[in-house]
Amino acid sequence: MEKEFIDKSMTLRQIAEKHNCSRVFVRNILSEKVDNFDANQNVIKKLDQKVIHSIKESKVEGKSFAQIANDFNRIGVKTKTEKGQWHGKTVRDVYLGL
After folding, report:
1. Which residues contact 65 (CB under 8 A, 6 or more apart)?
2. Residues of 32-52 as b/e, b for ≥16 C-beta within 10 angstroms?
3. What does the pLDDT profile of the chain (98 residues) look like in tens digits?
4. CB atoms inside a 10 Å sphere around CB 71
5. What is the pTM of this model?
6. What are the structural domain ranges in the chain?
7. d(Cα 9, Cα 60) in Å, to the nearest integer?
8. What pLDDT, on the 0 to 100 scale, is given for residue 43?
């Protein structure tokens, strides 16, 4: 998504349509990517909040936890460990605050 936004000058709407997700979701993910370049110690908290916000927005749109996990994996959202893949159960746990 980041390359599409920066290199191809695609709008949030175009990226959202291409990836079948909301503009809010795209904006949150792009904000997350930019924060990743910051060496600030608060990055993890910011990333967690942005991921949680994206999950909540996606749930409001009617998406299942599995669909949200697939979206995260497709666009490259890193997990907390930055090693694994997102799964519906993981998204559910984050959503429920576990």
Report:
1. 88, 89, 91, 92, 95
2. bbebeeeeeeeeeeebeebbe
3. 667 765 566 777 888 899 998 888 877 777 766 544 333 333 345 557 788 889 999 999 999 999 999 999 998 888 877 778 999 998 988 888 75
4. 22
5. 0.55
6. 2-96
7. 28
8. 39
DSSP string, the chain: -HHHHHTS---HHHHHHHHTS-HHHHHHHHHHHHHHT---TTHHHHHHHHHHHHHHHHHHTT--HHHHHHHHHHHT---TTSSS---HHHHHHHHHT-
Q: Taking the mean position of all CA atoms in its chain, how far away is CA 21?
A: 10
